[in-house]
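User: We ran a pulldown and think these components assemble together. Before we commit to crystallization trials, I'd like a predicted model of the whole complex to look at. Sequences follow.
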Amino acid sequence: MNRTVKAAIFAGMAAVGATSSPALAAEMVFVSWGGAYQDAIRAAWLDPFKAETGVSVLEETGPETAKIKAMVETGTVTWDVVTDGGLGVARGAAEGLFEEITPEMVDQSHVYPEIINKHGVPSEIFSTNFAFSTAAFPDGGPQPASWADFWDVEKFPGKRALYGGPNTVLEAALMADGVAAADVYSVLATPEGQDRAFGKIEALKPHIAVWWTKGAQPAQLLGSGEVVMSNGWNGRIEAGIKEGLPIKAVWNGAVAEVGYFMIVKGAKNRDTAIAFLKHAVSPEAQAEFHKYVAYGPVTPGAWDFIPQEEWARLPSSPENLAQSLFLNVDWWLANEPAMIERYNTLMQQ
Amino acid sequence: MTAAAGRIGSGGGIARILGFVIFAVVFAAFVWPILTLMGASLQGGESLGAYTKLTTSPNYQRAFVNTFVIAGLVTGTALVAAYPLAYLMASVPPRTARILTFVVLLPFWTSALVRTAAWMVLLQRNGAVNTVLTGTGIVDEPVAFLYNLPAVIIGMVHVLLPFMVLPLYAAFRALDGQLLQAAEGLGAGPATLVRRIIVPLTAPGAAAGALIVFMSAIGYYITPSLMGGPRQMMLAQMISYHMQEQLDWAMASALSIVLLGSTLAVFFVFQRFYGFDRLFASETGTVIDPRLARRGGGAAWRVALVLGLVVAIFLVVPILVVFPLSFASSPFIQFPPAEWTTRWYAKLAADPKWLAAFVSSLRVAVLGVAVAVAFGTLAAIVVSRLRGPLARTLEVVLLAPLVVPPIIVAIALYYTHARGPFMGSHELLAFGHALLALPFVYVTVRAGLRSFDPNLELAALGLGASWPVMFRRVMLPSILPGIGAGAVFAFITSFDDVVIALFLTNAKSRTLPRVIYEGALDDIDPAIIAVAVILILFSLAALVASFLIRKRP
Amino acid sequence: MTETAPHVGKTVELVALNKHFGAVAAVDGVDIAIAAGEFCTLLGPSGSGKTTLLKIIAGYEEASSGAIRIGGRDVADIPVARRNIGMVFQNYALFPHMSVAENVAFPLEMRGVPAAERARKVETVLDLIGLPGLGGRLPRQLSGGQQQRVAVARALVFDPDILLMDEPLGALDKNLRSTMQAEIRALHRRIGVTVVYVTHDQEEAMNMSDRVVVMNHGRVEQSGPPAALYDRPANAFVARFLGDCTLLALEPDTQAGGFRPVLGGAVVVPFSPGWQPGAPRMVAGIRPERLRIVAAGEGIPARVTDVAFTGPDYRVDLEAGGTALIARVPNLGAPPARVGTAVGVDFGPGDLFLVPAVS
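Assistant: Here's a predicted model for the assembly, 1261 residues in total across the polymer chains.
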């Protein structure tokens, strides 16, 4: 009864409204994290791909694992390519949300071998570093240069913003507390180490004005004067600097991650998606990306196309990589839910 | 045939059958998905696991307390702010009253999302408010207005204040000016006048407004998530978080039960003391004689004037401020802007997603309005012909979508239709919007039918008209204003909805509010300010048009 | 009615009619036969079932049992729209969004009358009711009396067999009401339609009708020409409802062969044929205008308790032997008595009517 009534209602409604526009020959739905990052993907990769192939690309933002899972579980997959960091890939892969990428599909022989992932094609290398407001700490005066300075509210007074999730923040807290970058994960593996990280964040909490959740926020908050320091994704911070906001990035203690493009299992436009991944990972395309956002290439070959003076802005340049720590995907995959729970409690209290 | 005619007249067979059909449809479309969702709270690894978590984790208890504290503060603030403005509206000459009504209605007609975005811009650390405060030396340091409790209160009060002002204004309008005269003649001073006469007589209006504001506030989602921080996490946000970030159905469902239970409890308490009818009390009575009000008030009236104007400015400023802002050059919103540009309008024009979303919104709204108007009108006519328990049950069921927080409607529809063929379609979204809009259409048409003389129907039938001819020629023209008002409400409901669109649309079918929301949340994209300007102009045009139409005899 | 020849209405017969709303009997065993062309008024207090009865005749309500025959034909299966009945509602029920002409033309339109003929008929009928040239107005632009006339015009324009009128003058002020009463009477004489008229105003009922049906609690109390009802009411309810009256207790006087008022006096009302001791007790009613005030010492001794001036006459309240009496004395230039004075009252046997005592 209930079903027939519903069906009747929908049939009526469908008759009232025009039916959906007919599917185009080739289209692809691309979902990423918005802002300067997605603008750059569009300019560097999507637009040339569209021009080359005639494919029409629909964009959306916010490819959270839960949303992908809901689509896959309910068989209503409307996304084709989604993007996330290594942790997101691992999380989704564990749930069986992503197509496996074989060499036959996308040739990745030219990519840094250590970042190759069965379920995603590396797209860029990005960092979570921090930035400060030069309006608050002008050139010539003392300026923060490490996580320890980020935590030092005596020397650098003012409100801070921190990411509203634990990953990269626990690492930063330990480094601020004097743990060497190389030892961060061995300390974090112990309960005492976790307490130490959370204790350090707890201590800074009175000075945290905003727990940011979206990538565009840190530059916005720094630019608007809401906070004097914030951690953030380096490309997003760079975008603010480019727009003339009075902010400066600090690379010391940056936590680097690899960004990946994945194909959602059951994607309707799988072939188009594969063609796009092939396009994006080519050294030529890789070398384009930095022009639009300060993220580094995933192929050594790309450096040949990038002018030397640009290297300092990019997380995967040898100099910046030396100051950075790579996010330990395995540790996070195992510990993320508990860390999130504890972090939420800390934020909400 | 005589039997049929007789039954139409006396509310027998056909009306009863239609009554049961309407009940069945609303039950299947609205009540059943919610019940199904409630059932989901028992799923998951261990049954009752969600409830164990609910009762043991302090985060949930905090969200529960937050929800009530914030809703209470918002209601209290709105009440205090609405009184002087409503009094002012009722006591100024008609032309000024019209301008003030316009001021109250303008935000009412402007997307809640747009208003919230405007507040974010105004309140940020180097935003307009802080610029004024530090510039005039009132404070030394910029005040942190954003991402904290005051921000959430300010944003929510602004969105919900019209719901408080309008019933209060109606109550003031219904206040017999002679009563004030009489009280004055009997020796009451201004303070006594307010305390002994005005407050008791406007209390029902205030209670009605407070109920609407409190119930809406309990289910609030967009404003706290944009303007608050983790410490202002409310139940509705928690539900959304568990849905969108955790995909934890059991938890989202358990929280929905808590939220729905709270809302219903508030509703029934109100119902017990005042009755639901009061919510829809029509605007009758005379305007308070302005001279009388002024003479009777004296100092009190001057205070009301100042406070009322402050509240009016509070209502309008965020809407006005987006105009200059839309021409600011920096993508990182600043006020006052350093340089001027039209690049955001150019960006709108260049990016097809905005036009596509606008077209989607229009399509969904037209479809949703059509369904809500047709079904709501039918339901109102049928209920008007029924007496007894069936009529009362139908009334409750038809008004229920007004009481149930939209987030629950959204996830209930999502939950029941996730695997269905309609997921992501404009039809399903329009259907959701029609559910939300149904009470508005029902209430306005019902009011129209109350003032429709049943003898007109009998006369037309007696003069030889069939029922359909009677409906078209006699009843429809009489209730058309009610249907029109319902349709306008339905349109606004649909055109302004983010919550349901977030769950039921996808990249292809997403609507304008959803794109704006994503813009505000993911990008802080200044293009949304340009969209806001266009939408405000759109509302303004609609509002002016409605004023012009109403002015004609 | 557009023809000059009178349109002869049809008979209306209600046979053992009942209408129940749940447990409540709104119409309870009603039998009425109305002759063709008769002006019949249903009179009763509110809630007496008269409007329900009207709606049953019109077809808006369905009788629970019993039969309705119009022109000898059972109309139970004929829908409202095809009974060819005109109805005037208490509040006129003019369609507010249609002009006067459109209102009046509506029934013709429903009957498929061509536009030209419609216009002609509307014009004729507006002339007939004395509203020529007002066809373009909206109902709300008319006075109450004008609206009433339009409602009548709309109910008559399609030559109905029967005209039903539900308290049609209730909303008008007293002067306008009597003017309209005269107009409706004249109209009825002219067109000869059968009229069933509902009112709770006994004066209106009496001065308009050929026949009055007095109703109470869904039942017919009495039916007949107005004078018969007024002078010879069948029971105390009818007696009181049709006008002021005083009820006097009686005692049988078998020697005199009739009843004597307990109050005293020489009057004997003869027993009705077949009267037996132990039959239901009867009381005598007397209308105020039949009670004569005489000098103290004559007739039955009484005392004046109040005198009220009404214009054409004086209403005098009296008290005699513990019974309150009402007299009505024509205004001949001076009050007939002063409050507090002792007077006598007198009446003849023909001034009294007998009704069963209400226990």
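Residues 1-5 of chain C have pLDDT under 50 and may be disordered. That may be worth checking against your pulldown data before setting up trials.

User: Thanks, that helps.
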